[in-house]
């Protein structure tokens, strides 16, 4: 089988496949019928060329000539149909659009008839009706085809050329090559065999262009669907094939001119070529650039929405339930725009936004306050913030002020709000993709739609955590029933001591036993009370008092343990409004935690100072410290503890809730092996001097 037969056979196969696609999707539109007819006749013409090459003879030659003319006429009819919309725009030249197609088709049909008669006369061993008709005929038809393509391209508006340019390139390539072939034959009085053999391959390359044009023009009712995945992998295979052919040619010359080292050099070159190809095929950067190119130039829409949505659902649903869903949310949204990673912030109980997860990006512990410019922007507008666009055109975002910590996130690219039932529950920072790309309306719409789906998963996770926490509180309340039973036993013991004291108060043995009983009861009640402490206390009167007094009381209560806490008060002792006993207990709990985490020869220091209308209390130690993940995910959660069965895990949670109830804030900084710093910020209570010059309200109820 020669090279010409292979080329025409391959072209026939591709045109038949395209014919099947067009036929199965045809919905009765005239344009679709003309396109289907032209493609099918072109496929038959390629088959006739193969038969002529294999069998020869007058009849196979006659069929080839007849189908070639029929192919040209079919394409002319299709192109003239595309010219119809331009008739209304032609004005005075409308008559030209009315009569020209008929004249061309009549002339082409007449030439087809004359060539057919010539072939039949030659087959009957008679002279042709008109000598030397074939070459001028085919050359003229090729010129007419090029003129039609030029007219269509010129009259197509710029915004519509995107849909039709591959059709013009494809059909124009067919007629341009015919012009080259027959012009060469007309000059040299014979058809060049090499040019004729290559004609099949040239026609085969046109088929993908026609398929893309059909897909971009649904108005023809020819909805050819080509999966992006198929196009991507086909492009990769074709590119790899071309690369290997080129490398094989180089390897041949290396071996041919390499002398005694030729074969060895050829094998080394082939190994390097294959290694390079494998590296390129697995390059995520090259993959990203190829996807961007294909989406931009070969598809009407950038995304295959069905495939993208299935991939999002699979990413969100795959894996273990729990907090890992946050990472999967980041990955699902980042993959939509080929982002390199991202970070997720979620709203907490106070309304602020805390960093809760990250994927393929450095962790960031920054907090966004509820009244910040960015938070208000996301609440008022469902916009995605493109940081590149913001840097160039900040006015588009209506005086939006971005938080300073965004500059610490390397390669930050997009800020994406996450809404659930129109309520802002979080936002995401996406990292720049591997290949540079610009986002448009289609990217933004897909990201916002996908973020709403992701928000439902995040809201479900939050509801599950709240339910689990409520179940833990219920279990704790059930446990308190056993504690109450123990307290009743203790009360009974003490009641018995009181009852017998009147009769045995002068008995030394009784008194010693009574003291031991009271001591035991006091010790047990202290332990029970310590276990029962939780976020809610019985209501008591809040008072105005110096904060230093609560600090001193807490320090005195824990001075019997090592390391002994140290207290330093700077400036004037500020006043606060709180339940003094409860505040002392909160500070005492933090001191106790610091002592338990620090060696006996370490330090636990308390410092108080007034800054900007707030009282700052820091409790620092050089103990074992805590990991960032534990601080973020577990420290302030109830029933989370590092003490095993020795602790209930509600002390720090209760401390935070109490400080918040006072209008304050509690933060923590820690590093494993170096220690921890708790910072309490409480609002200062400002009092007006009384007429006698004394401060009023220092001990009054508020």
Characterization of this structure:
By secondary structure, the chain is α+β, with helices and mostly antiparallel strands. The protein folds into 5 domains: 3-225, Rhopdopsin 7-helix transmembrane proteins (Up-down Bundle), CATH 1.20.1070; 232-282, no CATH class; 305-468, GAF domain (Beta-Lactamase, 2-Layer Sandwich), CATH 3.30.450; 469-532; 543-683, Histidine kinase-like ATPase, C-terminal domain (Heat Shock Protein 90, 2-Layer Sandwich), CATH 3.30.565.10. The chain contains 20 helices and 13 strands. The protein has helices at residues 3-25, 30-55, 58-83, 94-123, 134-155, 161-188, 193-215, 228-257, 262-281, 284-298, 305-317, 324-336, 373-380, 387-392, 441-504, 508-532, 547-557, 580-597, 628-635, 651-661; strands at residues 342-347, 353-359, 367-368, 385-386, 412-420, 423-431, 543-546, 566-569, 575-578, 604-611, 614-621, 665-671, 675-683. The strands form 3 sheets. It has a 6-stranded antiparallel sheet with strand order 3-2-1-6-5-4, sandwiched between helices. A 5-stranded mixed sheet has the order 8-10-11-13-12. It has a two-stranded antiparallel sheet with strand order 7-9. It is elongated and about 145 Å long. It starts with a helix and ends in a 19-residue tail after the last strand. Residues 90-97, 126-131, 221-225, 534-540, 644-649 and 690-702 have low confidence and may be disordered.
């Amino acid at each position: 089988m020669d090279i010409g037969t292979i080329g025409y056979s391959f072209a026939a196969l591709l045109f038949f496949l395209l014919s099947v696609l067009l036929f199965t999707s045809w919905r009765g539109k005239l344009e679709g019928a003309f396109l289907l007819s032209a493609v099918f006749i072109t496929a038959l013409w390629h088959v006739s060329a193969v038969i002529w090459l294999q069998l020869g003879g007058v009849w196979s030659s006659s069929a080839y000539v007849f189908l070639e003319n029929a192919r040209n006429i079919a394409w002319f009819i299709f192109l003239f149909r595309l010219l119809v919309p331009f008739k209304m725009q032609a004005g005075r030249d409308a008559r030209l659009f009315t009569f020209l197609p008929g004249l061309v088709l009549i002339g082409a049909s007449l030439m087809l008839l004359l060539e057919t008669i010539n072939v039949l006369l030659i087959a009957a061993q008679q002279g042709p009706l008109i000598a030397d008709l074939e070459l001028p005929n085919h050359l003229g038809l090729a010129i007419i085809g090029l003129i039609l393509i030029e007219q269509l391209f010129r009259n197509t508006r710029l915004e519509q050329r995107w849909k039709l340019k591959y059709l013009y390139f494809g059909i124009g390539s067919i007629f341009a090559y015919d012009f080259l072939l027959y012009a060469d034959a007309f000059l040299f009085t014979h058809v060049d065999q090499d040019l004729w053999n290559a004609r099949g391959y040239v026609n085969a390359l046109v088929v993908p262009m026609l398929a893309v044009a059909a897909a971009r023009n649904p108005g023809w009712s020819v909805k050819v669907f080509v999966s992006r995945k198929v196009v991507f992998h086909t492009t990769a295979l074709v590119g790899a094939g071309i690369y290997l052919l080129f490398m094989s040619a180089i390897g041949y010359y290396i071996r041919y001119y390499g002398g005694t080292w030729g074969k060895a050099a050829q094998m080394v070159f082939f190994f390097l070529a294959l290694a390079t190809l494998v590296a390129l095929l697995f390059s995520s950067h090259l993959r990203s650039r190829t996807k961007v190119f294909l989406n931009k130039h070969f598809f009407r829409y950038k995304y295959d929405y069905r495939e993208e949505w299935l991939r999002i659902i699979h990413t969100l649903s795959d894996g273990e339930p729990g907090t890992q869903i946050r990472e999967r949310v980041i990955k699902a949204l980042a993959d939509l725009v080929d982002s390199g990673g991202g970070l997720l912030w979620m709203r907490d109980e106070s309304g602020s936004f805390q960093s809760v997860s990250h994927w393929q990006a450095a962790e960031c512990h920054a907090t966004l306050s509820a009244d910040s410019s960015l938070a208000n922007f996301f609440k008022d507008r469902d916009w995605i913030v493109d940081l590149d666009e913001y840097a160039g055109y900040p006015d588009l975002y209506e005086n939006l002020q971005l938080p300073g910590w965004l500059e610490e996130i390397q390669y930050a690219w997009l800020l994406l709000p996450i809404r659930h039932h129109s309520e802002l529950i979080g936002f995401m920072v996406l990292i720049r993709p591997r290949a540079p790309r610009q986002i448009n309306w289609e990217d933004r719409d897909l990201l916002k739609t996908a973020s709403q789906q992701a928000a439902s998963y995040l809201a479900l996770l939050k509801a599950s955590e709240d339910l689990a926490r409520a179940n833990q509180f219920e279990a704790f309340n059930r446990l308190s029933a056993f504690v109450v039973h123990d307290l009743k036993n203790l009360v009974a013991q003490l009641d018995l001591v009181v009852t017998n004291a009147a009769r045995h108060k002068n008995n030394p043995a009784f008194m010693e036993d009574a003291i031991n009983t009271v001591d035991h009861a006091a010790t047990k009640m202290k332990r029970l009370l310590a276990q029962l402490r939780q976020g809610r206390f019985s209501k008591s009167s809040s008072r105005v008092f110096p904060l230093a007094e609560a600090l001193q009381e807490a320090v005195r209560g824990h001075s019997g343990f090592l390391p002994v806490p140290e207290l330093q008060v700077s400036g004037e002792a500020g006043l606060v409004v709180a339940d003094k006993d409860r505040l002392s207990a909160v500070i005492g709990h933090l001191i106790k935690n610091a002592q338990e985490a620090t060696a006996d020869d370490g330090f636990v220091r308390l410092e108080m100072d007034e800054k900007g209308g707030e009282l700052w209390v820091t409790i620092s130690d050089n103990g074992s410290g805590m990991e960032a993940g534990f601080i973020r995910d577990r420290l302030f959660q109830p029933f989370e503890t590092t003490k095993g069965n020795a602790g209930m895990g509600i002390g720090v949670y209760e401390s935070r809730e109490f400080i918040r109830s006072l209008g304050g804030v509690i933060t923590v900084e820690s590093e494993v092996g170096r220690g921890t710093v708790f910072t309490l910020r409480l609002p200062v209570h400002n009092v007006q001097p009384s007429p006698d010059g004394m401060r009023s309200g220092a001990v009054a109820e508020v």
